[in-house]
Design brief:
479 residues, alpha/beta, Aldehyde Dehydrogenase, Chain A, domain 1, Aldehyde Dehydrogenase, Chain A, domain 2, 6-stranded mixed beta sheet, 6-stranded parallel beta sheet, binds adenosine-5'-diphosphate, binds magnesium ion
């Protein structure tokens, strides 16, 4: 079904067309058909949104924090009440299997709920600066914050980036990705419905080069949260630096999933599939895209993995298969290109790799075995259902291989040897270490990268630090 009404920008509590009057089309990647028309935000619209945020900021930060928190709680509840509609919309816009979209919507609600609880618990310290002073710190909001959001977890990342910003007393201008703009607008609408004041939560869809760059370079934006590719992150950081605007970057990964012979191999097998195929068709920054397998179990583990991978169902997200289509034609072509690169580097994939003769941006779950860690398919982020398998012989080599990439987002180990797991956690350079479960953690656990995977932390209480600045107040006692 085609929906042809234009989805307008949310600025200052109203849904408005772009200043230019232009719109763009978002597509359903399962059918390649247009899904909706969306107002195409650009510089003028970002200016309006930032201005409205600036006006809303003083009142929002001065609102009793428990009241701010209560609004966040109400938003969380209203998102949950609407989960059926929101998950279907997310599936249509992004392509992901319906049950995964549902988990993302629930996650979005959970972020608002989690940060609702901290709104009235953000406080500073008192510092014992000798008898003659009274010294204390306060944590203050940054002001107007911009959230530049990618297409892989559209609604979930609205929660992850906007909820801590608002809880800490900032206002938000969110810029969803041009491939998947619809769910962010819906969350903004629900926020209005539950009583958020106009201008506190703006949503300006548009293309990266105009709406995104306008937000990153806006002199009246006081903080930027960016999630996306390394190259775009570098551009965003450069733009923000011209105004000395703080940025945190959550970029890509080429994360090692390390399986030892002493692991529970059934668990490792299930988690390996979840890590690269069973979650958003591998379009996840924290995908387990490099499987490092000990030589002793390599053959038996890989045989089972191939068997299970070949059985994964592929289909339109709305039918809730194991693997849905990729988000766009561009992403499809990029991933197919890497399959060709893999073929030239290491030969035929041991499963998958066929070009499918069907509508929709479907890519078969694909595995390349006997990959050398120096190859491009072991070093570069593919962002699709393509797994590179590298063999290792002992702990030293596993750790060396795990670290031998430019990225450092996550790393996982499967073992029942506690000492081995602790050593891995100590010696591997990544922002998250998973032991015996991939994607272990929750909204409560800090998330972010080492090395080229970025800096700054989202999720957990750490996110509040990214969204506040510290003021020290020092009194001299002169009597
Ligand atoms: P991809 O290349 O897979 O689309 P990006 O990292 O480019 O991923 O996109 C992530 C987000 O960054 C999207 O919201 C996109 O619109 C935005 N974006 C892209 N280019 C720029 C840019 N030059 N400045 C600011 N934001 C951008
Ligand atoms: Mg779409």
């Amino acid at each position: 079904m085609m929906e042809k009404d234009t989805h307008n920008l949310l600025i200052n509590g109203e849904f408005v067309p772009a200043a230019s009057g232009e719109t763009f089309t978002t597509f359903d990647p399962a059918t390649e058909e247009p899904l909706a028309e969306v107002a195409k935000g650009a510089q003028d619209d970002v200016n309006r949104a930032v201005e409205s945020g600036r006006e809303a900021f003083d009142k929002w930060r001065a609102m009793p924090p428990e009241k701010r928190g209560r609004l966040l709680t109400q938003l969380a509840e209203a998102i949950r009440d609407d989960i059926d509609r929101l998950s279907e919309l997310e599936t249509q816009d992004n392509g992901k299997p319906l049950s995964q979209a549902r988990a993302d919507v629930e996650g979005c609600a959970r972020y608002f709920e989690y940060y609702a609880g901290i709104a009235d618990k953000i406080h500073g310290n008192s510092i014992p600066l000798t008898h003659d002073y009274t010294d204390y710190t306060v944590r203050e909001p940054l002001g107007v914050t911009g959230q530049i959001i990618p297409w892989n977890f559209p609604i979930n990342l609205v929660g992850r980036t906007v909820a801590p910003a608002l809880a800490a007393g900032n206002v938000a201008v969110a810029k969803p990705a041009e491939q998947t703009p619809l769910s962010a607008l819906e969350v903004g609408k629900i926020a209005l419905d539950v009583g958020f004041p106009p201008g506190v939560f703006n949503v300006v869809p548009g293309f990266g080069a105009d709406a995104g760059a306008a937000l990153a370079s806006h002199p009246d934006v006081n903080g930027i949260s960016f999630t996306g590719s390394v190259v775009t992150g570098q551009q965003v950081a450069k733009l923000a630096t011209d105004n000395v605007t703080p940025v945190h970057l959550e970029l890509g990964g080429k994360s090692p999933n390390v399986v030892f012979p002493d692991a529970d191999l059934d668990v490792a097998l299930n988690e390996t599939i979840t890590a690269i195929f069973g979650t958003n068709a591998g379009q996840v920054c924290s995908a387990g895209s490099r499987l490092l397998v000990h030589e002793e179990i390599h053959d038996v583990f890989i045989d089972k993995l191939v068997e299970r991978t070949a059985e994964l169902s592929l289909g339109a997200g709305i039918d809730d298969p194991a693997v849905g289509p990729l988000v766009s034609i561009d992403q499809y072509e990029k991933v197919q290109k890497y399959v060709d690169i893999g073929r030239s580097e290491v030969g035929e994939p041991i499963v998958g790799g066929d070009v499918l003769d069907r509508k929709g941006y479907f890519v078969e779950p694909t595995i390349f075995d006997d990959v050398d860690n120096d190859m491009r398919i072991a070093q570069e982020e593919i962002f699709g259902p393509v797994l590179s398998v590298v063999e290792f012989k002992d702990d030293d080599e596993a750790i060396e291989l795990a670290n031998d990439v430019d990225y450092g987002l996550v790393a996982g180990i499967f073992t029942t040897d506690v000492g081995r797991a602790h050593r891995f956690a100590r010696d591997v350079n990544a922002g998250q270490i998973y032991v015996n479960e991939w994607f272990a953690g929750g909204v409560e656990t800090p998330f972010g990268g080492y090395k080229q995977s970025g800096f700054g932390r989202e999720k957990g209480l750490e996110a509040i630090e990214s969204y506040t600045q510290v003021k020290n107040v020092c009194f001299k006692i002169d009597r």
